[in-house]
Structure to design on (509 residues):
């Protein structure tokens, strides 16, 4: 056999030619891969830098009417420089800018943009000497407007418990301590103070309303909730009046907390109501007309609070217990709530006081006021006009449920009405699509032999989407703002506040 050497030589020549021509493609591809790796690294580092600048400067955005854009931009630049080294991979800056903007009420935005020229290594053979990469980041800051609603009814004052390994403790003391830890962990009156781990003094708006039979604005909403002098929210918490005889006017507490948010009128902010209560409603406010024949000196209708005692338990028999009233709807001062009658009550049978300290003579109220109307609402103690309401037309649109009747001699009727006035007010709040309030409710389950909580109803007030009632049904209303309900004992109040704070921080991003 003979070998064809010419054919073999021809094939070797072909491979050499193939490699030579392929190198014109393979070398640029390898160079392109390397250059793209460099561009990817620069892009990632640049994005990290603008993200840090936006987030870092976003924490400095304050609530003042005039933003300090110089200071904000300075913070942004320092964060950017700390995260993007000069001449990273030989890059040179094309542009960098940060732009703080005051948007809708309660919202501020900062946008950071940057671009870098990156020199190419291998792509120069194709005439590409550099490429440009750019990155942008934006942070929207929603300020928090939070009004705390505290139940200071008699059952909270009377309740006690013994923590594990501890001594007998009053529930109200634990509530007050946990409230301080929630919004003002430092006593600013005796030292420089310290920052709340959850809320920012000078930026977030925080206030407090308390309620028993009547209500009080214990601390008006302010951004200086920790630093305000001479009274800050911590001292307001310390000054809460925990009265042994207070009833539970949940409707007034919710209503006046809501009114604080509406008056502030910041639709872009996160508007929050945090309510802590240990019982069921037993009082409600309204305008109560007199009988045609009555003993009152002033014959005009009495505006105030109608209450029922709770000693007979929930839904007491009509023939047992008594009703009290008509009490003043706004808390006039420490130690006076339970004994202060509505204005112009002189001469009325219920105005005759007895006992020590003096209390209204409740057994004869029906001689002047025999029934309450089927439609009532809290008095407008600080007149704002009907424009205050965003989802209803008039006060009369918040109606009571009269399943127990309307007799003032019937604790059953008063308790039904108190429950449903509060429920209607909570529904009005959740339906407000202008400021979109979110309601968090802490149910303080004292289990102290008095009335137990109605957890199903409190979860309904909060509109908790995960809560199932005793029949396994959801209480959640999908067309209304969503909140959360926490059912805890005194030892769990602090943990509930922490969870609420975490949820508020999540919603404010």
């Amino acid at each position: 056999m003979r070998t064809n050497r010419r054919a073999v030589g021809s094939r070797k020549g072909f491979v050499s030619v193939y490699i030579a021509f392929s190198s014109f493609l393979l070398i640029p591809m390898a160079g392109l891969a390397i250059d793209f790796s460099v561009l990817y690294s620069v892009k990632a580092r640049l994005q990290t830098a603008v993200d840090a600048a936006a987030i870092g400067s976003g924490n400095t955005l304050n609530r003042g009417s005039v933003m300090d854009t110089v200071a904000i931009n300075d913070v942004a630049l320092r964060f950017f420089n700390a995260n993007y080294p000069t001449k990273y991979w030989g890059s040179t800056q094309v542009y960098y800018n940060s732009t703080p903007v005051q948007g809708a009420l309660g919202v501020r935005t900062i946008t950071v943009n940057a671009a870098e020229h990156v020199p190419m290594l291998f792509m120069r053979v194709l005439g590409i000497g550099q490429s440009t990469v750019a990155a942008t980041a934006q942070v929207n800051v929603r300020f928090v407007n939070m009004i705390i609603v505290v139940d200071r009814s008699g059952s909270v004052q009377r309740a006690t418990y013994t923590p594990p390994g501890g001594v007998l403790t009053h529930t109200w003391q634990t509530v007050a301590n946990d409230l301080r830890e929630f919004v003002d962990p430092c006593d600013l009156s005796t030292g420089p103070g310290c920052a709340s781990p959850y809320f920012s003094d000078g930026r977030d708006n925080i206030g407090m309303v308390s309620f028993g039979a009547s209500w009080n604005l214990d601390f008006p909403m302010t951004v200086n909730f920790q630093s305000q002098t001479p009274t800050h929210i911590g001292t307001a918490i310390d000054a809460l009046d925990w009265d042994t005889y207070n009833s539970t006017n949940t409707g007034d507490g919710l209503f006046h907390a809501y009114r604080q948010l509406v008056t502030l009128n910041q639709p872009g902010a996160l508007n929050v109501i945090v309510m802590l209560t240990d019982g069921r409603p037993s009082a409600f406010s309204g305008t109560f007309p007199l009988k045609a024949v009555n003993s009152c000196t002033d014959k005009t209708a009495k505006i105030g609070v109608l209450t029922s005692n709770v000693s007979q338990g929930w839904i007491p028999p009509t023939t047992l217990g008594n009703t009290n009233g008509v009490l003043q709807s706004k808390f006039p001062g420490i130690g006076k709530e339970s004994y202060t009658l509505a204005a112009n009550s002189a001469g009325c049978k219920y105005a005759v006081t007895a006992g020590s300290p003096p209390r209204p003579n409740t057994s004869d109220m029906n001689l002047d006021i025999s029934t309450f109307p089927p439609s009532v609402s809290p008095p407008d103690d600080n007149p704002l006009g009907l424009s205050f309401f965003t989802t209803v037309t008039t006060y009369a649109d918040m109606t009571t449920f009269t399943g127990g009747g309307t007799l003032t001699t019937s604790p059953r009727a008063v308790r039904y009405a108190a429950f449903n006035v509060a429920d209607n007010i909570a529904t009005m709040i959740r339906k407000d699509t202008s400021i979109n309030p979110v309601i968090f409710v802490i149910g303080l389950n004292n289990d102290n032999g008095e009335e137990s909580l109605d957890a199903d109803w409190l979860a309904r007030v909060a509109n908790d989407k995960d809560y199932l009632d005793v029949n396994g049904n959801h209480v959640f209303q999908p067309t209304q703002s969503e909140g959360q309900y926490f059912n805890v004992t005194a030892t769990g109040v602090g943990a509930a506040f922490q969870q609420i704070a975490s949820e508020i921080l999540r919603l404010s991003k």
